[in-house]
Design goal:
This protein has a 5-stranded mixed β-sheet. It has 89 residues and is of the alpha+beta class. It contains 3 helices and 5 strands. It is globular, with a radius of gyration of 12 Å.
């Protein structure tokens, strides 16, 4: 099962412990995670179910491509990292 991890800076704002969650796409994995930790959903996804601009998701170290439908495939033993995107100069 894929492992979902949130960075410490996100965990300061919302409870989101590391969990193993079944799913074949990043949408499936996130939906499974949010069933267990509903409070994290609004921090990660907007009201249309798309990845928020300030968030980034990596599957085994590679950033996902589909920020809208979240259709990127997730291998069964993958590590999914959710991080807050940084900007500035």
């Amino acid at each position: 099962m894929p492992t979902v991890r949130f960075t410490q800076n996100i965990q300061r704002h919302v409870a989101c412990p590391t969990r193993e969650v079944a799913g074949e796409t990043i949408r499936d994995v996130l939906d499974g995670y949010f069933r267990l930790h509903a409070q994290a959903r609004g921090y990660v996804l907007d009201d249309q179910g798309r990845l928020r601009q300030h968030m980034a998701i990596f599957i085994d170290g590679s950033q996902i491509r589909d920020r809208d439908d979240l259709s990127d495939r997730v291998p069964p033993d993958a590590v999914v990292d959710l991080v807050q995107a940084l900007s500035g100069g």
